[in-house]
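Help! Submission page says 'invalid entity' but I think these are all valid:
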Amino acid sequence: MRPTIKDVSAMAGVSTKTVSRVLNKERYVSEDTRIRVEAAVAQLNFRPSHAARTLAGRRSFQIALIYDNHSPHYIHQIQTGVWNRCLEEGVRLLAQPCDAASPTLAEEVGGLIDQTQVDGVILSSPVTDAASALDELERRDIPYVRISPGTEHGRSSSVSMDDAQAADEMTSHLIALGHRRIGFIIGHSNHAASDLRLYGYRRALDRAGIAFEPKYVRPGLFDFSSGEAAAERLLDLPSPPTAIFASNDDMAAGVLTVAHRRGLSLPRDLSVAGFDDTALASQLWPPLTTVRQPTRDLAYAAAALLFEREEDPVHRRLAHELVIRASTAAPPAA
Amino acid sequence: MRPTIKDVSAMAGVSTKTVSRVLNKERYVSEDTRIRVEAAVAQLNFRPSHAARTLAGRRSFQIALIYDNHSPHYIHQIQTGVWNRCLEEGVRLLAQPCDAASPTLAEEVGGLIDQTQVDGVILSSPVTDAASALDELERRDIPYVRISPGTEHGRSSSVSMDDAQAADEMTSHLIALGHRRIGFIIGHSNHAASDLRLYGYRRALDRAGIAFEPKYVRPGLFDFSSGEAAAERLLDLPSPPTAIFASNDDMAAGVLTVAHRRGLSLPRDLSVAGFDDTALASQLWPPLTTVRQPTRDLAYAAAALLFEREEDPVHRRLAHELVIRASTAAPPAA
DNA sequence: TTGTATGCGTTATCAC
DNA sequence: GTGATAACGCATACAA
């Protein structure tokens, strides 16, 4: 049989309450008894039952990570970051994939909380913006943190990077190389980051005194084929761009494919840049110039916020990092 | 306050035990009372507490997925497959990343079981082969299923694809195209699939009457750079291969990169094939010829096995599917 | 600093 | 078919 607190208390010669005190690191336990209890715990290889603790106390030692994202890499980064913090905290992680657009999302979230009584919830984009789900969490008064929310930044604790600034820097980098006709492929409209990245692109052009030309901007869906389609349109223009900046790397891969098909030599004939959303960049040929995103760190920070229950309702980590790789070059002399 | 069974029983005018019976779909409940109870449950939006059920009963309505794999895509497929089955079963999924080589793995697994009392465990490769972890599971007599185990296939229920057959078919395909000098890059030695794939390659050569040449076979580590290194060596040979078959797509991407660097025109000068382990294939240029793997389906089947508690101790799903894309071609006339 | 009595929300046992 | 009552393993309130 699994040992219980009773077994431990018997072996240590104290009451169960005292064992409980030691387990929960409460104060008012003499050094001496603490050591005896810990010895008994180790000897019996005792591990408290989460179920019993949940039922009797107010903690379940579990949190849930709710996500809906099509990029395995993104999810993996998020999970890893959150998990690392959970490990430090001795808390288990419940994986909760979902459809952010589902009409039953709120009910699913409510059910999750009621059944599991998790101590907190982490939402990753784009579930961050499902208002009905947030309502449900708040109704139950359960702590939650959002990663890269697109709306209502003030509504809860959240972490995010500065997408506009990152896009601005990448665009500025391309301008510094001599590019003047810079194509841009927008991300999926359900991600707020898409707008911010476009804004950063425009801001950099403005500052450099380059006119914004709508024809150089194409919509995309964050996937490979929309990147292909956008690239076809851009390269068909009478005076095509000498550089294309895609809002993520799946789309950038689409751009590369089109360039290859057209026999363009990269990066001589065309520079391709992108956000490294899925870590695909280094495996493409040529390797992409990308904005590397600190997704894992953001996720870790989100979990940290959850456990620390910081008072500050809005805690934004503005993090970005520009990584320049080999595939950008000055535009052709022409 | 959250409603409890008591609230439901009061509203339905029955005892708590009867409510419990309905909740657990036990027999011996009259149609009439069942309907009344279900109405009360719906009305109150009642959801039983997992913690209480775990404590009182013998089920926790949670299973754990233990994994250690560096490929986000692989993990994502596994999680998705398992999750889908859990959803049907009304069971929650605990994510448990780990280091399969850690000396404390067994202890971690034991702790997981003791604390959470999960109803079952799913292990994905390569954690499937950590004997100490399996010992721990068996000591606690908890059901578990392994996905693509490398060793001791008879030890537990497991699901896996037929790697040898798949590699055989791909190799045969290349031979049918006219290739005679076919390079092969082996996978990481800690994955049993690596050996099986090599075996399938050899078997196809044998059947076609082509001599096995060790110089055409290079070791790899399932990552991009080991694929690069192997390709360099293969293409440096006096009479280099006209096709290279890599044991996964990360390595195949490395091969492509080397080919591009050397100015080879693909697939005219070189055919490249691989196992589609990370779903990278379609995003490379040119797209790879790959063996597509039914990872998600395997994971779903694993979870199904867990819930069905099939008697058959060894249940191998032999599944594979060969997908031919545009990038293989007959070898150069030379 | 430590111990005792009580209850968390559900299932199990055994009676009716 | 249904219900009373005792667990389950721990934390809480309160007492000592």
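Support: the input was valid. A stray whitespace character was the problem, and the output above is from the cleaned input. Residues 14-18, 21, 27-30, 33, 52, 54-57 of chain B lie near DNA strand D (CB under 10 Å from a C1').
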